[in-house]
Design goal:
One of its GO terms (molecular function) is alpha-1,4-glucan glucosyltransferase (ADP-glucose donor) activity. The chain has 17 helices and 17 strands. It is of the alpha/beta class. Strand 13, helix 11 and strand 14 form a beta-alpha-beta unit.
Amino acid sequence: MYIVQIASECAPVIKAGGLGDVIYGLSRELELRGHCVELILPMYDCMRYDHIWGLHDAYRNLEVPWHGSSIFCDVFCGWVHGRLCFFIQPKSSDNFFNRGHYYGALDDHMRFAFFSKAAMEFLLRSNKRPDIVHCHDWQTGLVPVLLYEIYRFHGMDHQRVCYTIHNFKHQGIAGANILHATGLNNDSYYFSYDRLQDNFNPNAINFMKGGIVYSNYVNTVSPHHAWEARFSDISCGLGHTLELNQQKFGGILNGLDYEVWNPEIDPLLASNFGPKTFGDKAKNKQALRERLMLEADDNKPMVCFIGRLDGQKGVHLVHHSIYYALDQESQFVLLGSATEPNLSKWFWHEKQHLNDNPNVHLELGFDEELAHLIYGAADIIVVPSNYEPCGLTQMIGLRYGAIPVVRGVGGLVNTVFDRDYDQNHPPEKRNGFVFYQPDQYALETALGRAIALYKDDPVAFKTLALQGMAYDYSWNKPGLQYVEAYEYIRA
């Protein structure tokens, strides 16, 4: 099949979160399965140009109809670690992608509406006719709308759309000016509950809802999160729309790029290790302790958190886990950046307060090299999310022999199985500890069991870590599921 992915990110050239990793990993897996894959991305001024090989002109002066007039774009082509990518660069005083950041501008809705329009215009004018157009999250929610309301009448009537929702929290709520800009000019038609009208604001359109309604197949990034989206408030108001489109909605678990996340060959570790050389994992703990000036005491397990410090990630439980781990005579290492000023101020205060404690280190920011070393060193990885569509942290932790302690939500339910209480897996298939309520006591019941196992039964702790390493959360199975979805909607 010929597949075009349209997205706002692709790691490592454009990465603001897990979306970029998914775009790259899925594209690579599809190519390994023999499919032709191309990516269309915005050409941000701040992206990592050093990860692009052979960047050159692909289409000069692409004329994109916009606001009753036109904006011209240049489209550049290059390879990102083997993936063929097209980058759209508008030549406009709006400077849609010359902002010094990927997201967060006041006109984000207009920026990504233009990107969606330009991507479709590029496919049309360059005579690219993919079997599947795969678009992601609210930023490209208008792609299937534009395809089925405009471009199918211009020779693109055989293309089918797969739409993947990575996070329901951000949906792209905008006004009628988006319709006028993109050429979807019939307000009364689109401001309809069964089309683009937001479910709770009759005067707004919803990009993500448009993606759901107009796509041939819609999925979120884990089976359990798909269930949550339909039967809880986690869909942030789109539950009824998903109910109306349930026949084409499902969940496919994200994969993990095992070329990047592999402790046996990871160049960022102090010492490589695998299931047969598990003892060498301790050398990474020693290296991390030396780097962060932590006390060398192997009687204390190393508990770690890696991720954003925000409401989604259960920041109040992250904070509590630091002090609980210290109270249980453990060490704690945190690597993460806060998404809000008040949270940043809170954790900077904690960092200063704990600065002289030899058993804790808070690294506020993000450092890819340090992240790998922390995974390699960690005995226990904490993921106390309020909601988690899929989650990569627990998968990476399992891969690196760090036992995950997770809250039972979203993709965490599909990947971590409680050592003591899981009834769906035999003891030899369990791989971590799970708690369900979003409170401190629930966290302590799981984290406490993990710490106690480390101290009281090191052999059983190692066995559990090895059982986690045995799981295959690569792109192999998800890649097959996506191919099956593509073949289904083509038929």
